[in-house]
């Protein structure tokens, strides 16, 4: 189903790839121009996305949005692009927020010895992510899925002379491959039963499939989603991923890539709608992740890791939202989260950059006086993520939470509310410890090769402008789009895909939306209050260093060890595999298998010595052997003659 | 006629090089590369044209019958391409003899893949062992490896011989490859198939007949091991496709489960060993044990889609294993070692080398968009369609393991802090880069549009 | 009253067996050679006997040829034995065993 | 008085006579020749005679003739075997000129030619008398030839060969006598009538007759003489023995099983032979392992190779006979070529026999080493050599004849043999360790002969000439 805007779609898809290739090929020559080049191309593709808005929402002959096959491997294996409201939203974030972050990076990565390579990777990532969200079939989705994993691998391990970065990158990649493999299995199930990989065909066929099969497909798909979106138990790579440069964390590990799982579930809504158990599974995992991430967030000291766990927790919200069936709610939270989390990361980036790579909030403090801009940025971000009424986060989070109730999941509803409180606690904790009180850090030694080489310098406008721009949507976009329930522009935008929220509502909630908002707000206040009492109150400020040290010492082991998930994986999977490898490589291969063959050779030689042992050299012995043989012959012929 | 030229040209050139009076490296390399490139051209020009000449009329019809089938054409193209790259990349001592051997190897293997006659196939099967044997004996690390290689594969060749003779006697003709023949059935079929299968399994190799392979692959000089692992190891799989499935389909089908079981075991066994190897070449060796198990599974499933995938994967594996071995050769050349423990941080000073190795490794671990992925996906979809679930699951596990050991290979070589004790290195120069560029390009092309392989 | 052929066959068999035993047990090459002659002559006896039984003179011709050949064989044999044992004092084949294995 | 023979009878044995006369000429020429050019003169006279004989025999190929009252069948079958014998003789005679100085060249050559006459008679022999005569003529010559060298090992080999071979001959004679007794005729053809099936004389006779043949073929357990005699005898003699004896004996054997054995009992009658053939294929090849002497190694290899040839005959089909001939020809060329190489690199009669002499041969004489490699690979049955195609043909005929177990044993034996022949190749391509490999003589004649053999072995793969019209008996 072609459309006017289709070439635009192809163009906006390929522009970042062009950027990647150019930066990769001519990086050394272009040098700093690379940044501008990459940013420019992404910006253009953002404009193209805006330009193709109309065609994305149009509905021609039953096909929503711009869709057209590009290339065909074989019948049923057609590849094409699909730009519909869902992918359009993601495209906006990828290209829009992406543009701002790339722009920011020009300042942030300034002077890095691999400057060009960084922008090549960033552009490549955006191309891959666009492939993921624009593809009109599962294999294309999987391709994008794998490629974003690769991009994230490259960027996590960007400073690859650091062993920790290399290890984190490998961990992230392998865990994501586990997810890819899950999706592959889903594709096998789909092809074996539907004989097509196109979204259209599959969703059309979904009602005809058996519940068990649909559940299996959803499960396999969700393995991929969980790995990509850092859902329990495949979440352990995300905190380590913070080894990458901060803009990377902002774009890939906060705004876009990690939300691919949300996209997947939202995209495959027709499948999930046919399997209540799958919905429950997803929602539950989301809830566990949200809660677990929040709890772990309270125990972190590294500013980026705090943000990482908050990301994990917020994605938990989104997954819950799409899981229970409140698709536009989950997507809405993705939308707002992209802004305020990017803003938080970039703000943190300003701080880290200024303190030449100090990331431990215990070594910060009192920064609001030194860098007020960063402080206000962080503050608005925190308010937004906590869902303080009026800020964007409030509307989206509210939609998710209330959606859980609307679709009859009171437990998840409860978990949401609790998590909201914890979120408020640890976010304000970060804010207070880092920005209030007195500066505790001694000028941190400049670790060579990490971040930019030259020491403290006030972030230039190149870094400030994007952050400032991000503040606007993270404060306002929610109110602008998501206010008013079914009639909100947001709901109407998604109505063609999902219908209105209340139309899908299962139960009429005993509690009204307003009350929910109130409850949530109260828990947030509570969380804020505890954080204030512990870190910001006058008493707390008095002997901050001692208190922090004490807190560090008293930190429960279960939290410092991150619930022992890594430990279990190491002991149950990695080590046994390696032991097995040692066994096979050292014992079985050389001694058992090859040994068997060597034994054959040995026996052949033994037989040879046996044969030669008859060659005594004695004529009479030879004669005897001869005669013995002759005797056997004679006997045989005597018998044979008798037998006839 | 052109197809005959394609086969005889490298053979003649190889023999001529032996006659070359003295060691002249530049002349040798020029001749070698020129011939190899010309062979690529003639092969493409020859296409699927045929050439035939009567050989035996009794006890069965046999002919010197050459000509590419749609399947073998691609493998032959792979062979000529890899050979060209490998010869260009040859930088060993006694270059004249080495390049001569490489050309002989190419010629004999072209003969194998282009043979349309079983007897001819068997002839080249044994013949192609000889150059590798001398390669191992002359340039390998332990001469004993040469003997192990030879004895293992010669044993396979003998069962192949017996099976061929039996087939010829029963069928009346061995001029059967790549033509629509009524499949052989009856009490004999399983035994004949067993004879073929043993040879093919040894050559591929498949667990537990693989123990000749790791020492061979790690012992051979990089250019030759590139050709051997990329193409010679495919002789067995090609045999399964062109002989097993074409002539003895019932036997293959009846004994599919053992075949797939062996393939599955190879998949995991090779992958698990590759996880912990310290010798980079051995990692790739065991990885190819693992990867080719997948093709064995595809063949066992007999599903059409899986067989398409098998062809794609055969080509893909050829490309990336050749690239990997050539690049590891460059690394070893620079560092005088290939032990992961002693290497690291090469990437900073060698971005080209690192990038190339990265692409090859990613193709090997089945990154979407590269050739390996297309093959894997089609194979596994097909196998699953055919109703086999457990091999699919095993394969998926192996894919995860592959990502682990191949990243380990790449990162331990290229990433991490630079080792203090390693000498200052120079990056690939344009000539070296040119020797692997075609392979990497082909990896991308096949990965993006594998359909090219069966839309002929 | 003629002797039945069977007797000749039996006799020949016995002579032949004696010859075989001689080759195996005796250590003196000369006597071994004699034993071989014995075996050949057993054959001759058979030939002649059957020739008479069948009234076919081919048997006699065969026998004559065998005798001739045997003579030649003896000649060569003696020559070889002489050359072999010229250095030795006693003639014993068991001393001749430099080739083995 | 007038002889009852027509000129055609004499024409039938013309090739044999030519060779015999050539031998006389060698002796005569030797009297008048001086010391120096002596051996070359003898060799060239002998070669000339052999070539003439070969041409003459070739003329006979087309038309079979039943000479001397059915005693000798010329043409076809006989011709092919005679040509092989002549090739063997030529290939061996050349070695006398190729090697370092050896004693009594002229005499040895003459005797060798006469032995060849015996072998040629066996090739055509169609009755028991002729078989015995030919066999003894061949053997007596060889006894003497073995002793021509001055080494104790040479004399020892002669003694062993004499005693054991004569014993076997006695068995053969006794069997022949019994067969004569069974039918009252010495003609092989007369044995073939079904009435014999129930005749104990026939059975026992056939048994003892076969013992004699199997000994000459040196099949296990009648092989014990082979390694010692091969090692002890002078190089050319070993070469001649390894080919001519086997060729002639196989001729007799083939004629016996094709012409003299009633088809109904063939399977039961010949089973022991196939069994020993099977054993020989294994025993011969494992015996080769860890041998240090080329002649001894080739002795063991001969044991196995004859086993292969018998496998071809196992079917008892005319086709099988043709494949046997094909492989026999190939075998003759391989062995003669290998011995030629051995002679080419030996300064005295024995040097070429020791494997350590081959250390690093590839460095000094790459082409000689290449030829040797081809010949050894041919013996092992690798392509592109006649050994490979021969094995295929043999396997095919044995499979079609239902002797799969023999085919399997052949495969196993071949696998082992490769390892054994590889010892030599390994030695040649290994760097000469220890002593700086001394400059070796380069004898063009031997190299030519080796080259021809190697080339022929390769060419035979692509032009598999399996002569038709080789009927064991003219009907």
Question: Can you characterise this structure?
Answer:
The complex is a heterotetramer of chains A (644), B (456), C (101) and D (475). Helix content of chain A is 75%, strand content 3%. With 644 residues, chain A is mostly helical. Chain A is globular. Chain C starts with a helix and ends in a 16-residue tail after the last helix. Chain D is mainly alpha-helical. Chain D has a domain at 268-470. Chain D has 19 helices and two strands. Chain D has a two-stranded antiparallel sheet with strand order 1-2. The mean pLDDT of chain D is 87. Chain B binds chain D through residues 55-56, 58-60, 64, 119, 122-124, 126-127, 130, 134, 137-138, 143, 147, 150-151, 154-155, 158-159, 161-162, 164-166, 168-169, and chain D through 319, 323, 377, 381-384, 388, 391-393, 395-397, 399-400, 407-408, 411, 414-415, 418-419, 422, 426, 429-430, 461-462, 464, 466.
What is this entry, summarized?
The complex is a heterotetramer of chains A (644), B (456), C (101) and D (475). Chain A is mainly alpha-helical.
Q: Main β-sheet of chain D: number of strands, strand sense, barrel status?
A: 2 strands, antiparallel
The third-level CATH topology of chain C is Helix Hairpins
Q: Most extensive interface: pair and counts?
A: A-B, 46 and 49 residues
Report the β-strand fraction of chain C as a percent range: under 5%
End-to-end distance of chain C: 57 Å
CATH architecture of chain C: Orthogonal Bundle
SSE string of chain C: HHH
Helix content of chain D: over 70%
Query: Which strand-content bin applies to the residues of chain D?
Result: under 5%
**Mean of pLDDT of chain D:** 87
Number of beta-strand segments of chain C: 0
Structural category of chain C is: mainly alpha
What is the count of DSSP helices of chain D, taking H or I runs of 4+ residues? 19
Largest sheet of chain C: none
């Amino acid at each position: 189903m072609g459309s006017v805007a289709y070439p635009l779609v192809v163009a906006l898809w390929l522009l970042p790839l062009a950027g990647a290739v150019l930066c990769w090929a001519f990086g050394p020559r272009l040098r700093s121009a690379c940044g501008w080049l990459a940013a420019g191309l992404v910006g253009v593709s953002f404009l193209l996305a805006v330009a193709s808005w109309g065609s994305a929402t149009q509905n021609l002959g039953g096909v929503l949005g711009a869709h057209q096959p590009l290339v065909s491997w074989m019948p049923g294996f057609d590849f094409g692009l699909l730009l519909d409201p869902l992918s359009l939203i993601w495209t906006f974030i990828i290209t829009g927020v992406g543009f701002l972050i790339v722009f920011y990076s020009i300042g942030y990565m300034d002077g890095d010895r691999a400057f060009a390579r960084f922008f090549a990777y960033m552009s490549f990532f955006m191309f891959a992510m666009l492939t993921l969200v624009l593809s009109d079939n599962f294999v294309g989705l999987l391709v994008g899925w794998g490629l974003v994993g690769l991009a994230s691998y490259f960027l996590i391990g960007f400073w690859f002379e650091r062993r920790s970065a290399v290890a984190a990158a490998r961990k992230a990649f392998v865990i994501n491959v586990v997810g890819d493999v899950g999706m592959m299995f889903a594709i096998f199930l789909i092809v074996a039963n539907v004989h097509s990989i196109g979204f259209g065909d599959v969703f059309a066929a979904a009602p005809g499939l058996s519940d068990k099969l649909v559940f299996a497909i959803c499960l396999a798909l969700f393995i991929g989603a969980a790995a990509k979106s850092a859902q329990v138990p495949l979440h352990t790579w995300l905190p380590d991923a913070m080894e990458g440069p901060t803009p990377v964390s902002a774009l890939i590990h906060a705004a876009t890539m990690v939300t691919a799982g949300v996209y997947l579930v939202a995209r495959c809504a027709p499948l999930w709608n046919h399997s209540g158990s799958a919905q429950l599974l997803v929602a539950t995992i989301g809830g566990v992740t949200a809660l677990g991430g929040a709890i772990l967030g309270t125990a972190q000291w590294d500013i980026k890791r705090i943000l990482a766990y908050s990301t994990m927790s917020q994605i938990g919200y989104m997954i819950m939202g799409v899981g229970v069936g409140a698709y536009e709610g989950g997507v809405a939270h993705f939308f707002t989260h992209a802004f305020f989390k990017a803003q938080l990361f970039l703000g943190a980036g300003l701080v880290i950059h200024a303190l030449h790579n100090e990331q431990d909030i215990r070594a910060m403090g009192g920064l609001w006086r030194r860098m007020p801009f960063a402080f206000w940025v962080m503050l608005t971000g925190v308010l937004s993520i906590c869902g303080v009424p009026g800020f964007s986060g409030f509307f989206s989070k509210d939609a998710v939470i209330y959606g859980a109730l609307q679709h009859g999941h009171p437990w998840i509803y409860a978990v949401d509310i609790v998590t909201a409180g914890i979120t408020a606690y640890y976010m304000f904790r970060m804010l207070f410890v880092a920005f209030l009180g007195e500066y505790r850090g001694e000028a941190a030694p400049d670790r060579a090769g990490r971040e930019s080489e030259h020491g403290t310098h006030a972030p230039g406008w190149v870094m400030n402008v994007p952050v400032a721009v991000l503040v606007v949507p993270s404060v306002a976009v929610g109110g602008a789009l998501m206010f008013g329930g079914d009639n909100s522009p947001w709901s109407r935008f998604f109505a063609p895909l999902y219908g209105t929220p209340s139309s899908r509502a299962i139960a009429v909630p005993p509690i009204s939306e307003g009350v929910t908002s109130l409850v949530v707000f109260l828990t947030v206040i509570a969380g804020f209050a505890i954080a204030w009492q512990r870190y910001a109150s006058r008493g707390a400020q008095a002997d901050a260093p001692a208190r922090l040290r004490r807190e560090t010492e008293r930190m429960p082991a279960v939290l410092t060890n991150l619930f022992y998930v890594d430990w279990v994986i190491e002991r149950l999977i990695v080590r046994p595999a390696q032991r097995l490898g040692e066994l096979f490589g050292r014992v079985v291969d050389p001694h058992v298998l090859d040994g068997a063959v060597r034994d054959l050779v040995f026996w052949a030689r033994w037989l040879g010595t046996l044969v030669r042992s008859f060659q005594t050299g004695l004529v009479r012995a030879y004669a005897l052997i001869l005669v013995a043989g002759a005797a056997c012959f004679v006997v045989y012929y005597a018998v044979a003659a008798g037998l006839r | 006629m052109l197809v005959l030229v394609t086969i005889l040209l490298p053979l003649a050139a190889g023999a001529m090089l032996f006659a070359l009076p003295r060691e002249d490296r530049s002349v040798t390399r020029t001749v070698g590369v020129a011939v190899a490139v010309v062979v690529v051209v003639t092969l493409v020009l020859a296409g699927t044209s045929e050439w035939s000449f009567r050989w035996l009329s009794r006890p069965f019809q046999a002919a010197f019958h050459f000509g590419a089938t749609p399947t073998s054409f691609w493998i032959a193209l792979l062979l000529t391409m890899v050979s060209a790259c490998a010869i260009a990349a040859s930088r060993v001592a006694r270059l004249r003899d080495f390049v001569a051997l490489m050309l002989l190897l190419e010629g004999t293997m072209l003969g194998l893949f282009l043979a349309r006659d079983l007897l001819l196939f068997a002839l080249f099967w044994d013949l192609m062992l000889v150059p590798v044997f001398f390669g191992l004996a002359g340039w390998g690390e332990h001469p004993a490896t040469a003997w192990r290689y030879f004895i293992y594969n010669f044993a396979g060749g003998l069962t192949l011989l017996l099976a061929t003779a039996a087939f010829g006697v029963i069928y009346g003709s061995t001029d059967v490859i790549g033509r629509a023949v009524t499949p052989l059935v009856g009490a004999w079929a399983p035994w004949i198939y067993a004879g073929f299968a043993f040879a093919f399994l040894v050559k591929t190799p498949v667990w537990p007949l693989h123990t000749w392979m790791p020492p061979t692959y790690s012992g051979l000089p990089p250019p030759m091991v590139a050709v051997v692992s990329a193409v010679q190891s495919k002789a067995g799989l090609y045999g399964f496709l062109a002989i097993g499935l074409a002539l003895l389909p019932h036997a293959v089908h009846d004994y599919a489960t053992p075949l797939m079981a062996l393939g599955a075991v190879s998949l995991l066994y090779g992958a698990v060993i590759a996880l912990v190897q310290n010798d980079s070449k051995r990692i790739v060796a065991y990885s190819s044990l693992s990867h080719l198990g997948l093709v064995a599974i595809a063949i066992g499933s007999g599903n059409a889609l899986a067989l398409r995938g098998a062809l794609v994967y055969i080509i893909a594996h050829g490309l990336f294993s050749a690239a990997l071995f050539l690049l590891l050769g460059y690394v070893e050349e620079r560092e005088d070692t290939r032990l992961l423990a002693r290497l690291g941080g090469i990437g900073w000073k060698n971005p080209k080398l690192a990038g190339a190795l990265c692409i090859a490794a990613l193709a090997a671990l089945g990154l979407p968009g590269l050739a390996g992925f297309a093959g894997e996906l089609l194979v596994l979809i097909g196998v699953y369609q055919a109703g086999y679930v457990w091999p699919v699951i095993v394969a998926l596990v192996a894919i995860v393991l592959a990502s682990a050991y191949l990243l380990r290979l790449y990162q331990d070589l290229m990433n991490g802090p630079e080792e203090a004790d390693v000498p200052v290195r120079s990056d690939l120069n344009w000539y070296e880069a040119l020797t692997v560029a075609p392979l990497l390009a082909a990896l991308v092309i096949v990965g993006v549009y594998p359909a090219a392989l069966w839309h002929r | 009253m003629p002797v039945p052929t069977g007797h000749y066959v039996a006799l020949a068999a016995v002579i032949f067996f004696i010859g075989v035993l001689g080759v195996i047990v005796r250590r003196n090459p000369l006597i071994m050679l004699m034993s071989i002659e014995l075996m050949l002559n057993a054959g001759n006896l058979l030939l002649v006997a059957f020739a008479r039984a069948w009234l076919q003179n081919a048997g006699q011709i065969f026998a004559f040829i065998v005798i001739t050949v045997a003579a030649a064989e003896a000649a060569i044999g003696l020559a070889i034995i002489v050359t072999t044992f010229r250095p030795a004092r006693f003639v014993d084949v068991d001393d001749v065993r430099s080739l083995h294995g | 008085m007038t002889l009852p023979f027509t000129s055609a009878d004499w024409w039938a044995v013309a090739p044999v006579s030519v060779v015999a006369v050539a031998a006389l000429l060698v002796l005569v020429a030797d009297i008048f020749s001086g010391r120096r050019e002596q051996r070359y003169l003898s060799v060239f006279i002998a070669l000339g005679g052999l070539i003439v004989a070969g041409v003459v025999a070739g003329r006979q190929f087309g038309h079979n003739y039943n000479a001397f009252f059915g005693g000798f069948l010329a043409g076809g079958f006989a011709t092919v075997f005679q040509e092989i014998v002549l090739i063997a003789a030529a290939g061996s005679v050349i070695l006398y000129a190729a090697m370092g100085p050896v004693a009594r060249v002229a005499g040895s050559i003459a005797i060798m030619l006469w032995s060849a006459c015996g072998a040629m008679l066996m090739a055509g022999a169609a009755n028991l008398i002729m078989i015995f005569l030919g066999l003894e003529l061949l053997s007596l010559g060889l006894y003497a030839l073995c002793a021509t060298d001055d080494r104790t090992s040479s004399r020892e080999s002669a003694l062993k060969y004499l005693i054991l071979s004569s014993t076997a001959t006695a068995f053969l004679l006794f069997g022949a006598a019994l067969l004569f007794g069974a039918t009252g005729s010495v003609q092989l053809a007369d044995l073939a009538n079904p009435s014999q099936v129930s005749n104990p004389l026939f059975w026992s006779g056939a048994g003892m007759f076969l013992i004699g043949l199997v000994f000459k073929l040196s099949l296990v357990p009648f092989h014990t003489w082979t390694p010692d005699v091969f090692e002890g005898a002078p190089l050319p003699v070993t070469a001649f023995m390894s080919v001519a004896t086997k060729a002639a004996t196989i001729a007799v054997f083939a004629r016996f099983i094709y012409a003299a054995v009633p088809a109904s009992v063939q399977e039961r009658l010949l089973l022991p032979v196939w069994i020993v053939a099977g054993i020989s294929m294994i025993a011969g090849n494992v015996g080769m392992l860890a041998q240090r002497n080329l002649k001894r190694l080739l002795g063991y290899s001969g044991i196995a190779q004859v086993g292969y040839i018998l496998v071809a005959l196992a079917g008892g089909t005319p086709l099988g006979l043709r494949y046997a001939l094909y492989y026999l020809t190939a075998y003759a060329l391989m062995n003669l070529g290998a011995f030629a190489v051995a002679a080419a690199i030996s300064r005295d009669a024995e040097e070429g026999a020791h494997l350590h002499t081959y250390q690093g041969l590839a460095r000094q004489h790459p082409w000689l080493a290449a030829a040797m490699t081809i010949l050894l690979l041919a013996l092992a049955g690798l392509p592109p050599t006649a050994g490979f195609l021969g094995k295929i043909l043999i396997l095919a005929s044995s499979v079609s004849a239902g002797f799969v177990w023999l085919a399997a044993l052949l495969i196993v034996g071949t696998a082992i043999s490769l390892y054994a022949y590889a010892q030599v190749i390994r030695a040649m391509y290994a760097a000469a360790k220890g002593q700086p490999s001394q400059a070796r003589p380069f004898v063009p004649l031997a190299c030519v002969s080796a080259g021809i053999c190697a080339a022929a072995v390769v060419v035979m793969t692509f032009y598999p000439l399996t002569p038709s019209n080789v009927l064991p008996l003219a009907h």
